[in-house]
Design brief:
Elements (H helix, E strand, L loop, with lengths): L2 H20 L8 H14 L2 H5 L7 H13 L2
Length: about 70
């Protein structure tokens, strides 16, 4: 399977997921379930993708912490 086919397959899977998701009733989901979902998605990713750090200086984390510190005052 070449890269184009992989991307097309991934897009097909996302389309099917969004179609399935649209059939669900909206419900409140607590944070622990959302974190579990994110953890599952991370497990699906290839190991090399999980090891790649797009922000090695952690600038994004520092900006988020700065924003949260303003909210918690």
């Amino acid at each position: 399977m070449n890269l184009r086919e992989q991307i097309e397959e991934q897009n097909r899977q996302w389309r099917l997921f969004h179609e399935w998701e649209a059939t669900l009733a909206l419900e409140h989901r607590d944070a622990s379930r959302l974190i579990a979902d994110v953890g599952t998605i991370l497990e699906w990713m290839p190991a090399e993708a999980r090891l790649y750090d797009p922000d090695p200086e952690k600038i994004g984390v520092r900006k988020m912490q700065e924003a949260l510190s303003k909210l918690s005052r």
